[in-house]
Amino acid sequence: xxxxxxxxxxxxxxxxxxxxxxxxxxxxxxxxxxxxxxxxxxxxxxxxxxxxxxxxxxxxxxxxxxxxxxxxxxxxxxxxxxxxxxxxxxxxxxxxxxxxxxxxxxxxxxxxxxxxxxxxxxxxxxxxxxxxxxxxxxxxxxxxxxxxxxxxxxxxxxxxxxxxxxxxxxxxxxxxxxxxxxxxxxxxxxxxxxxxxxxxxxxxxxxxxxxxxxxxxxxxxxxxxxxxxxxxxxxxxxxxxxxxxxxxxxxxxxxxxxxxxxxxxxxxxxxxxxxxxxxxxxxxxxxxxxxxxxxxxxxxxxxxxxxxxxxxxxxxxxxxxxxxxxxxxxxxxxxxxxxxxxxxxxxxxxxxxxxxxxxxxxxxxxxxxxxxxxxxxxxxxxxxxxxxxxxxxxxxxxxxxxxxxxxxxxxxxxxxxxxxxxxxxxxxxxxxxxxxxx
Amino acid sequence: xxxxxxxxxxxxxxxxxxxxxxxxxxxxxxxxxxxxxxxxxxxxxxxxxxxxxxxxxxxxxxxxxxxxxxxxxxxxxxxxxxxxxxxxxxxxxxxxxxxxxxxxxxxxxxxxxxxxxxxxxxxxxxxxxxxxxxxxxxxxxxxxxxxxxxxxxxxxxxxxxxxxxxxxxxxxxxxxxxxxxxxxxxxxxxxxxxxxxxxxxxxxxxxxxxxxxxxxxxxxxxxxxxxxxxxxxx
Lengths: 438, 234
Ligand SMILES: Cc1cc2nc3c(=O)[nH]c(=O)nc-3n(C[C@H](O)[C@H](O)[C@H](O)COP(=O)(O)O)c2cc1C
Ligand code: SF4
Ligand code: FES
What we know:
The complex is a heterodimer.
Chain A: H1 21-25, H2 31-39, H3 42-52, H4 64-69, E1 80-85, H5 95-101, H6 103-117, E2 121-126, H7 131-146, E3 162-167, H8 177-184, E4 208-212, H9 213-225, H10 227-231, E5 241-248, E6 254-259, H11 264-270, E7 280-284, E8 293-294, H12 304-309, E9 318-323, H13 328-342, H14 348-365, H15 371-384, H16 391-417
Parallel strand pairs in A: 1-2, 1-4, 2-3, 5-9
Antiparallel strand pairs in A: 5-6, 7-8, 7-9
Helix pairs in contact in A: 2-6, 2-9, 3-6, 5-7, 6-9, 13-14, 13-16, 14-15, 14-16, 15-16
Chain B: H1 18-33, H2 42-53, H3 58-68, H4 72-79, E1 93-98, H5 101-119, E2 125-126, E3 136-141, E4 153-155, E5 158-160, H6 165-177, H7 192-199, H8 222-229
Parallel strand pairs in B: 1-3
Antiparallel strand pairs in B: 1-4, 2-3, 4-5
Helix pairs in contact in B: 1-2, 2-3, 2-7, 3-4, 5-6
The complex binds flavin mononucleotide, iron/sulfur cluster and FE2/S2 (inorganic) cluster.
């Protein structure tokens, strides 16, 4: 069976003005909004999204419609709709190109979602290090206000919504939804205790939905074409389509929008395979916080259930692919340094643990110490995993434990050689092998 | 022991002179007006004061604190948490090289090493001012959500995709020589301070800038292109 691509969110990206209001309207832009506001009650919108089977695209995979239904109604408090556009998980690179190319579909999804949960104030929390995305978002919001898709009495429905683009300032942890809310309140971005969950006490202690960009952007097509159409993609429990972002040692890296459940083998087929003369060594199914996979996992269907059954997490479908020239110790050390840098410092296991992991790793990478060093590494991991205050700690441990599981001997080889046995010059895109001189 | 070594607080900042306050006031008030609760304006206000000075100074912190009714200690606590707020003057350009794993392996490490040598600066350091009157600050950065364009760099947080050591050196030479530089997915690069004003939530003063770089880079289109070739739609 050949794989069928499903360009929905990316359907018009090859047009010169796909990011403008005019460009979007040529592709059914804002027709779902009209349908939702004029033909559906808020509860009907929630039910449609629930029944579509859409699950969060930000990594956790929580059912989007169910999350919306948790917002208490008639509670007299303001409700907030917050879009998580912090995209900083290493390897993840889908929301940023999406917002560059089609910010209006996100805005349409926001208005529909806010209508569903009865919110009159929405925010897009976008990471700060993406100036051009901020430009596109600001312009799109201005256009949407001018066209009457935001502001007072949207499309004559009596529904009001204000939308603010809020730009972050460089902190991976602000992608964690409760840290994001603290950051949006003008504080250091540190995770909060849960419960209370954001649906009960979120932004300004009021009921709040936090959703990933891609989750929200998937809503207009669901409203437009119906839950049954959405369910023709993916599987029973992992319905719909999504971006699979291929990067690394592949011939054609980039964005592939397909039904959930595709395999890496099928994706590599589309992407021209591993770069010439090389073979797959390890890859991340969903960003650096998801346990590594190897050649043995080429046929794992990339949906929530199957990836988990194979020992990892679907995460953000950030497929970072590394060939046999890459030292797994070098790769994981760099991620470990990232987690140590990004640890928010709130809890001891993560703050101290990630620091000590880096120290131990640097020694190992340099081929110093003994096998005991490896055990120490795993020991520290044990003290972080499941004991940290938020999922950043567990994420930090994932690549370490999985790489030792699959490549223990490579670690030992560093110790035997007294240095790293790999040549970093061979991993680059300009390494001779790629140009045929291999 | 000097007082500095004891970690005693420094003399409070005097605050901005009146003409700076007058200039900042309309923008600052517009930022605050966006939010139902004032304190939410702190991150964009810090971007705004960074747009004023090229870093977050004691004066800038005091300005934010006074606008929001916070203590300078509270504002300092927030400013130091986020890596984009700089405590030392950034040059006319902030140049970032992604050295997170994917980019590092694909060549980011080599690019960063060559740039350091070429410019004679270390991480998070500013070059001397060039004969053309420009300087830049070099920093290695974390994954910038452009891994399919690896190895990638940024100038004032604009995307420079599919870089090589030679392209990187030519890029910084152009910046220091005052030659115009255009982002791969974005417009011509403006100054670091102008960029920071955009990050405070104000549209680029150059009306055309939003159109720079087209809708999507080639890597963003690979899946769509194959789908069209094969006549597949959703
Ligand atoms: C350390 C950390 C970083 C995260 N970063 C992001 C992010 O950048 N974007 C995102 O949408 N979700 C991120 N998440 C997940 C969010 O906490 C949250 O689950 C998600 O935004 C919910 O949206 P969804 O249900 O639509 O997926 C992160 C979680 C953790 C623990
Ligand atoms: S696990 Fe790390 S990032 Fe999360 S709260 Fe603890 S210190 Fe902060
Ligand atoms: S690792 Fe460099 S952009 Fe993702």
